[in-house]
Amino acid sequence: MSVASAGEFGLIARVTARLAGAPTTLLGPGDDAALVAAPDGRVVACTDVLVEGRHFRRDWSSAVEVGHRAAAANLADVAAMGGVATALLVGLCTPPDLDVRWAEELADGLAAECELVGAAVVGGDISASPVLTIAVTALGDLGGRPPVRRDGACPGDLVALAGRIGYAAAGCTVLSRGFRSPKALVEAYRRPQVPYWAGPAAAALGATSMIDVSDGLLQDLGHVSRASGVAIDVKRDAFEVPAAMRDAASALGVDPYTWVLAGGDDHPLVATFPPGTPLDEDWLVIGAVREGEGVTVNGRAFLDAPLGWDHFR
Amino acid sequence: MSVASAGEFGLIARVTARLAGAPTTLLGPGDDAALVAAPDGRVVACTDVLVEGRHFRRDWSSAVEVGHRAAAANLADVAAMGGVATALLVGLCTPPDLDVRWAEELADGLAAECELVGAAVVGGDISASPVLTIAVTALGDLGGRPPVRRDGACPGDLVALAGRIGYAAAGCTVLSRGFRSPKALVEAYRRPQVPYWAGPAAAALGATSMIDVSDGLLQDLGHVSRASGVAIDVKRDAFEVPAAMRDAASALGVDPYTWVLAGGDDHPLVATFPPGTPLDEDWLVIGAVREGEGVTVNGRAFLDAPLGWDHFR
User: Fold this and answer.
1) SS in 3 state form for A6-32?
2) How far apart are CA A244 and CA A252, in angstroms?
3) Is the peptide bond before A242 cis (omega within 30 degrees of 0)?
4) Sheet hosting strand B25-27, strand order edge to edge
5) Which positions does UniProt annotate for Mg(2+) 3 binding (chains A, B) (predicted)?
6) φ and ψ at B270, to 5 degrees?
7) Greatest extent of chain B over all pairs of C-alpha atoms, in Å
């Protein structure tokens, strides 16, 4: 059945029937607005839009996987402030001939990714549109801590990364060349493994700045560099390129470091810490903050590829 | 200059430069997420999407006016819970050839409508898309009051309306027939005058249920009727059809009550109150809650037109 034959309110009923609340959900879908607990008297909030053909393709990802990715992109932003996500709101613009099951499975993916952090889908809106578009807003709580911003990095700080990097970009390249394997890379693109825990952990460790890598490590570190008025140097040898990625890069004629340094979609968190901060093995030290400006790799500009995504290019 | 030549980050810089914060804005645009005060430890949240050709037309409304309408649709939902809006997040999907000025003026309209309630645009996202789409999320605060839901209407309650009704629908019909006047109606469509004050006021008066009329009075009262398990009867004579609307209806061959009873976009608030609630002249009593089910006009089904909008029809 198409979403048009289900009708706006039929579709809403089918989708919301698949959603469960979280302890922070004081009032879920079905009213003019939702009500969500904001325990520390402040709420973290961010929005990301995903447009078919630009952020996802239905022949590359299942509806469940698109739901995971759409949720992850937003939940990672909450983590990157040092917060724990509480709720998601979803605006779905859909062609009238979309199968209702696709919308239902999208909701399943969104809800499942939310469950990883104890959040829930609490509301949304549905409209017809010629272009399948998913607009997600995430809310979160800082647990009384100050937000970890982009503008606090200091010369001398360590730069450290939590989570996988380059996998999703590699998987995206693999898919774009018409292949379906290596599976580890394709799966990484389809369902990112975001280190949500690392956001509040970094805040507790005294991180001076933090950002989630969604558009490419060097580009996103560029935001930190500009906001903080510092230079950041990344050590290329800090990254171990796994065998699957090395083999795929070789087969496709790509430098795997373009995936690691300029690829998006894995949503690892990168943070700066005062020197001497005791970081356990979950954090990979990848560089250092210096006086000056700009982001370099081993002290030099990285010219092998664009630094990351511009969503109009 | 097109948004594509400005680039994603250039466009973001231009748009955010036009935005001011509100007292509740603890951290505005420019980081992974915004931070907004949630004084009572809870946050009201809702999302509405507007798709070009379906919710707005660039030849019918200026960018500033589209901004006002997009903000109003969401801010009204916060008011309908009894809340005061604090913040807006905006996801903009835009064709690459859109003039940067259009996006800037959209931001001006969004910001100006926010200012009416003391809220601010605190964040968002921008992406290219073949279809101009605006996804807005509003946040708000209940000031310690319980939310006014749709499911609390009781037999015997009064049904009362705050704000104009039918004007915007009339203006939309006027524009759809190729006319540009009467100006009062066209302006009502282009820039709704939402009675935001009435939301918290109704909550303070003990409203048992409330909804904002965005899809048509009878359809939206239908949501209240179903959620509350009651019947609602509306008195046709309660509404005074103003001269401009009567004249336009006559010229266009339309029953003006289809605008009043089934038209959307004005975003008045309709609430139910226990009998005897002292309502001042800002509230128009338009009917009563009975035992039973369904929404009637003068005790009979309203068959002159669809009850309101289905966004897939």
Assistant:
1) HHHHHHHHHHHCCCCCCCCEEECCCCC
2) 12
3) no
4) A120-128, A84-94, A133-141, A42-51, B34-37, B25-27
5) 32, 77, 212
6) -120, 130
7) 61
pLDDT tens across B127-156, in order?
999 999 999 999 999 999 999 999 999 999
**ipTM of the complex, rounded to two decimals:** 0.95
Q: Provide the residue count of chain B.
A: 313
Query: Is A30 in contact with B227 (Cβ distance < 8 A)?
Result: yes
**What number of C-beta contacts closer than 8 Å exist between A and B?**
237
Whether B56 and B190 have beta carbons less than 8 Å apart is answered as: no
Contact A308, A239 (CB under 8 A): no
Environment class of A59 (CB within 10 Å of its CB; exposed 0-12, middle 13-18, buried 19+):
exposed
- B158-297 — its CATH code? 3.90.650.10
Whole-angstrom Cα distance, residue B178 to residue B160?
34
Strand-pairing partners, residue A91, are A125, A135
CATH topology of domain A3-141: 60s Ribosomal Protein L30; Chain: A; (3.30.1330)
Nearest beta carbon to residue B44 from set A30, A33, A127:
A33
| Residue B181 forms contact with A (CB below 8 Å) | no
Give the start-to-end residue ranges of the domains of chain A. 3-141, 158-297
Q: Nearest Cα to B78, choosing from B218, B235, B202, B251?
A: B202
Q: Which of residues 51-90 of A touch B (CB under 8 A)?
A: 51, 54-55, 77-78, 80-81, 83, 87, 89-90
